[in-house]
Amino acid sequence: MSHEKLSNKKGVILKNLFVKPKNDNLLRLLLSSLILFFIFNMIISPAKFIKEGLNGISAWAFNVLPSVLPFMFFTKALSSLGQMEKLTHPFQRVTKTLFNTPPISFYAFFMAILSGYPVGSKMIADLYMQGKITQEDVYRMSAFCSTSGPMFIIGAVGIGMFKNSLVGYILFLSHILSAFLNGLIYRKLGLKNDYKDKPPKKNISQTTKIQGKNKLKNKDDKFSQKNTINTQSKNNEIKIDLTNQNSDTNLNRANEKTPDISEIVLSSTLAILSVGCIITIFFIIIECLSPIFNLFPENISAFLEGLVEITKGCLSLSALPNVKLAVILASFVISFGGISTLLQSITMLRQVKIPIKLFALQKLTHALLSALISTMLVLFFM
Questions:
Q1: According to the model, what pLDDT value does residue 90 have?
Q2: Does pTM top 0.85 for this prediction?
Q3: Where are the domains of the chain?
Q4: Which of 124, 271, 115, 129 is nearest to 183 (CA)?
């Protein structure tokens, strides 16, 4: 009985994540005041914020663009070929048992690990729009497919910022293990009817126009989808058979369609430009908030910067004298992603309409698990 009450309570908590607040006037007022604060600061010191904006563009152009854009292009091209179901079929039992998701989610998880933010979210959105996963799958996959990559964690943070490859491997291992555990936590999410949704239907017409004196008027959907009509003329039967053959041929041709390169390039370019825009804006936001952050101790100030923008936060954390504490805090920051990365991912997921509260909660649990694992690794290896 107690177990049923606990599960019902958990269902109510998760259900509340999908409900929009009735009165958000206070939130709108706070956001408006914050935006006016940013604008006022930029008017007072335009040169300083122009320089910070250029730093954000530089960070995007030299760190994010070269590694993320190719992955966005090739993963979308690979998904558009329609062969991912065959390639991921061997992992059907694994993904179904562990994450309660289709086998193609393993491919999304693997590519997200290799490429980093926000490619995993982009792949989830593409798979949903192609009708290969459902809304429930989106909710579950977002818990473990939104990850950073080894180029950033090991290369940029570990070797580049902390000047220690061991730190990079500790951060990467804790990040991936926590993503795996996070997927197990949310594997039951969306089983209720309140969360269910169907994937978008493909625009493939399966209806045939038949000219004849006798027209079928059958209300049963099962019989109306079949192209078998009883007519009194043999000529009409021949026309129907030919129509069925042409329909099957068109469907096969549609499935064998090659990917549209121009559409893939346009989609990938717009996605990476939106990422660059968000990174640049948040570099400016951190500069506006720096007087507030400086009121706190150095470690807290660096951690707060990381909660806003991951790259600048990790850079500040690497300068802390307490390296072990800095690694644990960096582990939390990388797995949470910062508000900047959250907005990047939500921008990619806007087509699937995932609740922001739910995605933020998933990133928070991911960050907590990562900090816990990194604490154990730091105590054991450092």
A1: 81
A2: no
A3: 42-200+261-381
A4: 124
